[in-house]
Predict the structure.
Amino acid sequence: MNERSLEGFSRAAAPWRLGVAHALDAVVVGTIGPVCLTIWRTKPSLELFELQRLELEASVAKNPGQVGFLCVVETTSDPPDQAVRDASAAMISSLGKRLAACACVIEGTGFRAAITRTVLSGMQLVARNSAPTRFFERVPIASAWMTERLGRGRDTELSALVEEARAARR
């Protein structure tokens, strides 16, 4: 191998690290390698949403077009109010092609999860996001999709680090 290919190989194989910027009872916000992560434990408020927005914008500013956004909505989280839905749609569409991928995991089954998925699907239609966006029921499936979209990392590593972030402030 030449020097250039060895350099690329070492970056691709480097383990991702978890960085937790905020670990509150309501939300966890941070990064896992090139993935900006938010885990909603309770109903999002505009104040808490701002933590998510600032972290995602900072991540994208550092590496435009190479950052994924992974949002996990736990079963304990109620759907957001209209103001937060509007802010979410504006956040994603303002990033445009600078965001590589957006995955949202709405955990749970039944009526509550179905309502949340419906709300978020509606937000996606309004956002007109140029980044590929998908909705999932479980983190491992979203992790596989995200690592494929980013072209690097290991889905099992991403899943494990999401679970580590989830444990923050419990």
Observations:
- The first helix runs from residue 3 to 13.
- The radius of gyration is 16 Å.
- The chain has one domain: 16-166.
- Strands lie at 18-23, 27-32, 35-40, 67-73, 99-106, 133-136.
